[in-house]
Amino acid sequence: QVQLVESGGGLVQPGGSLRLSCNASGSISSIIAMGWHRQGPGKQRELVASITRNGFTNYADSVKGRFTISRDNAKKTGYLQMSRLKPEDTAVYYCNVVSNRSYWGQGTQVTVSS
Fold first, then answer.
1. What would the pLDDT profile of 29-59 be if each residue is shown by its tens digit?
2. What residues contact 73, with CB distance under 8 A and at least 6 apart?
3. What distance lies between CA 111 and its chain's CA centroid?
């Protein structure tokens, strides 16, 4: 049974920072890629950032220069460092891991508001 546990969400003021973590536990084979998606109120789920096993990264245009994705292969943990947060970043953030299949976390709420 593979489980993804996300943490680090919360309420932050505009311009602030948060760091999300996603830990994969259970019988998971080699992780090919990890990613973060988000779904804001009334919006479709969208890809925020992804990182491959070899460290290649990809970002949505809306977060480039503000968010940084990273991973620790040994710990099977991925991170999303979010800086200069904006109200439009408010969403539920989901971790996604691709190995022999795709796995999703339960989501963590990020609210950017003054």
1. 788 899 999 999 999 999 999 999 899 999 9
2. 31, 53
3. 14
